[in-house]
Amino acid sequence: MQDVAVCIPAKDEADRIAATVKAAQELPGADLVVVIDDGSSDGTGRVAREAGARVVRHSRNRGKGAAMESGAEAVRLLDEGREQPRHLLFLDADLAETARDAAPLVEPVRSGEADMTIAVFSTTVKLGGHGFVVRLSRDGIRRATGWEATAPLNGQRCLTRAAFDAALPLAAGFGVETALTIDLLRAGFRVTEVEVPLAHRATGTDWRSQLHRARQFRDVARALAVREPAVAGGLERLRGSRP
Fold first, then answer.
1. CA max distance for the chain
2. What CATH superfamily is the domain 4-241?
3. What is the pTM of this model?
């Protein structure tokens, strides 16, 4: 059954994107791989196209949430005429050969057991100490929904088209995973985590890595700020008091 579209947001991943695309093409039921080149300067889009992917290019970096939306919209256009829309499997660009092991994420969605699956990596990678961002996301999801996430920031996710559309517009930047989980759970969709043997590039400890974590913290905090019950209620009251 050819019912899965793999969407791969990518920025400056020319060294790994070909391996990731080729591995994704091996996934059972995946007949479409879309790479969203989010303003790369290293030829990521060209390499992805040569590897067999459809490529959507942003002329400037717009962030992960926007890249996911662009990829899903490309799939929607290619789904025209199909009886059923494809499921959407989002994978990171740096998974390389391990992307072929993402199949367990699809099965619960395909069988109707879940509306969204989230990967929990069985292969432990030292991520350079960004646990404080994970805790921020996990605690926020628990407060907002009561659900305890093991890997709240993991970007490897499979969704039905209906679930994805229900979450639009997606949160900006690196807040997208946290917001997506909260929004779908609050809307009554079924979310489950699945252990998979995937692995990607570890985050380092140099200044660029520290800057990445700071941006991640900022985006997750912003996504939570508008979804926390107390904050959201306050915003609604403010809107209601406007003339």
1. 57
2. Spore Coat Polysaccharide Biosynthesis Protein SpsA; Chain A (3.90.550.10)
3. 0.89
